[in-house]
Amino acid sequence: MDRISETLNQLQKHRFVFIGGLHRSGTSLLAKLLAQHPLISSFSGTGVPEDEGQHLQDVFAPAVAYGGAGKFGFVPESHLTEDSDLITDQNRVKLFSQWRRWWDTSRPLFLEKSPPNLIRARFLQALFPESYFIMVLRHPVAVSLATRKWSRTGVHSLLAHWLICHRTFVRDAAYLKHVLVVRYESLVAEPQATIDRLCAFLKIPSHPVDLEIADHNDRYLREWSSRRSGWRSRAYVRYLQLRFETAVNRFGYTLMPDGRFIDQVVYANRGGQRVDPNG
Predict the structure, then answer these.
(1) Helical axes 155-173 vs 234-249, angle rounded to 10°
(2) CA 7 – CA 98 distance, rounded (Å)
(3) How many other CB atoms sit within 10 Å of the CB of residue 231?
(4) Alpha helices (runs of H) in the chain, residue ranges in sequence order
(5) What is the CA radius of gyration of the chain?
(6) Which DSSP state fits 179?
(7) N or C: which end of the chain has fewer CB within 10 A?
């Protein structure tokens, strides 16, 4: 048996779990919680930012190649699907080999977390067909304000980036066999209930949460609602609300002062089935 055939055979012994979501959405928190499960192996001690798999391979370009946090979704080439020329048996074996060194191969589930997975799930599914995808959704205000120092772009651009990435995912979700969306807000409010739901999705026994969790949304929502912040004027915030309110409503959020959620269906895929952050 040649090396490619041998590696492809090994792939059948494991299931892949990919976590995605924009930078500062809570993907690292979720990855840490799932990594506590005895059946799941994830990356740790790799020396790369947040132990993200995108930095531990050279099959496809990481988000930084397209501008990084708050920018990568604007570049069409960053969106990868099953139509990519990169999907070959050679690249499948190469990617698995580069990641495998960081996984505990005695565990059946391999976990990889990278923010751009939000718009690359179809590509990853083509490489690893029985993959499970968990996408983290967080309030666009919190994500945008938390990302400013990394992206060095304005809130208008960051809100637009939040929307374009999630709209892309909505379209892609119709092509995914196993996908679940989790709200950051639900994760921090009810971590054990959220992990229970995720374990059911992954078809494994649940596992107790053993990590201190804090909700960091409030500080950003207070800044958004405050009239004392130096980065913007009342008129600018009102403009952003008028510009983006209807669009973010589709995802269950509002930009109105002191607002957090609205009661609406969030994601719908091609078959009319819901891909709902609330499970």
Answers:
(1) 0
(2) 12
(3) 11
(4) 3-11, 27-35, 89-100, 121-127, 140-151, 155-173, 184-189, 191-202, 217-225, 234-249
(5) 19
(6) E
(7) N
**How many CA within 13 A on the CB side of residue 68?**
9
Give the CA diameter of the chain.
68
What CATH superfamily is the domain 3-213+268-275? P-loop containing nucleotide triphosphate hydrolases (3.40.50.300)
Please report, for residues 138, 140, 249, the alpha-carbon distance to residue 252 in angstroms, rounded to integers and kept in the order given: 10, 10, 5
Of the candidates 55, 68, 60, which has an alpha carbon nearest to the alpha carbon of residue 84?
A: 60
**Mean pLDDT in order along the chain per 10 residues (279 residues):** 64 87 96 97 96 98 97 98 97 95 95 98 96 97 93 94 97 96 95 96 95 89 73 80 93 82 47 44
How high is the pLDDT of residue 44? 94
Give dist(CA 251, CA 266) in Å, integer.
5
Q: How far lies 50's CA from each of 47, 98, 113, 222, 254, in Å?
A: 8, 17, 9, 27, 29
Q: Return d(Cα 88, Cα 144) in angstroms, integer.
A: 36
In angstroms, the Cα distances linking 192 to 109, 110, 136, 222, 267 are 20, 21, 16, 27, 23
How far, rounded to the nearest angstrom, does the alpha carbon of residue 107 sit from its chain's CA centroid? 23
Instruction: Tell me the C-alpha distance between 211 and 218, whole Å.
Output: 20
What pLDDT is attached to residue 184? 95
